[in-house]
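Translate structure to sequence.
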C-alpha cells in the first residue's frame, strides 16, 4: 500500500468526505418509461390500452366520481347537523381511579392534584379529547381521599369524593391550555372562559368551578389572575342599570 493510500484510509468510527455514501436501500433507480418492450414498461408505458386512465393529463378522476352516474353521497338525504361548539370529554370513573391508586400509579395531594397529565401518563385514559369529566360510577369502591382537577364533574362524583375528605375543582381548558397541561408547560398564560355557558359553569360553586368565590377561598393554590377573572366575570350580578322612563 502506497503512502498516499494509507494516508487516506478510512478508520472505523471516523467519517471522511471520501467514505460518505447513502444508506443501503435509501435510494432507488428512476422508473424509465417507453424504453422498449424488453424493459417491461415500453409501448403503453404501463398504462394498458385506452380508457380514461390511459390518457395524458388528468386521467385520474377525483374521489367520489362514479363515471357520471349519481354518486352515493348524493343519493342519501342529509339528517341533523354538526354542533361546532360541542365538546367530547374523556370519562373517568371513581372505581378506575381507586384501582390506579391501589396499584401505585396515581397519587394526589391538595398542593398537587390529579390533572389530565397524570391520568394520561399513568394510562388511566388513552386520550384527553377536549378535557376530563369525572363520573360517579363505582363510588362504593372509592376508599381514598383524592384531590382532582378535571374539566367537568358529575354531582354524584363530587359528593362521593368530598364525603371522604377529597376535593374536586373543575378548571377550564381550551385546546392550547389542555395541550400545555398534558406537556407540563407552565410558561404560558392559560385561557379564560369566554362563552356564556362556560362562564356560568366555572363561576358556580354548585359545579365546583375554580372561578367561584367559594372555590377561590378554599383552594390551596390560587393565582391572582383567577381572583381578578372571578371579580370581572361575576360583576354582572351586582351591576345596576337605569330603568327606562
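Result:
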Amino acid at each position: 500500500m502506497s503512502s498516499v493510500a494509507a494516508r487516506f484510509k478510512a478508520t472505523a468510527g471516523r467519517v471522511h468526505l471520501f467514505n460518505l455514501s447513502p444508506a443501503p436501500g435509501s435510494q432507488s433507480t428512476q422508473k424509465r418509461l417507453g424504453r422498449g418492450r424488453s424493459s417491461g414498461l415500453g409501448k403503453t408505458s404501463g398504462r394498458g390500452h385506452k380508457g380514461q386512465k390511459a390518457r395524458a393529463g388528468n386521467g385520474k378522476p377525483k374521489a367520489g366520481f362514479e363515471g357520471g352516474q349519481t354518486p352515493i353521497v348524493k343519493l342519501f338525504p342529509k339528517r341533523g347537523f354538526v354542533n361546532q361548539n360541542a365538546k367530547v370529554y374523556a370519562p373517568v370513573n371513581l372505581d378506575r381511579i381507586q384501582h390506579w391508586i391501589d396499584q401505585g400509579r396515581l397519587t394526589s395531594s391538595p398542593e398537587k392534584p390529579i390533572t389530565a397529565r397524570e391520568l394520561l401518563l399513568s394510562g388511566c385514559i388513552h386520550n384527553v379529547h377536549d378535557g376530563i369529566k369525572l363520573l360517579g360510577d363505582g363510588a362504593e369502591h372509592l376508599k381514598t381521599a383524592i384531590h382532582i382537577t378535571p374539566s367537568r364533574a358529575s354531582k354524584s362524583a363530587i359528593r362521593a369524593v368530598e364525603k371522604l375528605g377529597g376535593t374536586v375543582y373543575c378548571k377550564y381548558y381550551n385546546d392550547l391550555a389542555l395541550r400545555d397541561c398534558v406537556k407540563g408547560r407552565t410558561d404560558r398564560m392559560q385561557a379564560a372562559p369566554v362563552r356564556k355557558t362556560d362562564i356560568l359553569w366555572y363561576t358556580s360553586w354548585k359545579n365546583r368551578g375554580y372561578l367561584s368565590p367559594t372555590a377561590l377561598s378554599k383552594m390551596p393554590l390560587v393565582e391572582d389572575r383567577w381572583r381578578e377573572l372571578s371579580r370581572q366575570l361575576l360583576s354582572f350580578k351586582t351591576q345596576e342599570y337605569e330603568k327606562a322612563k
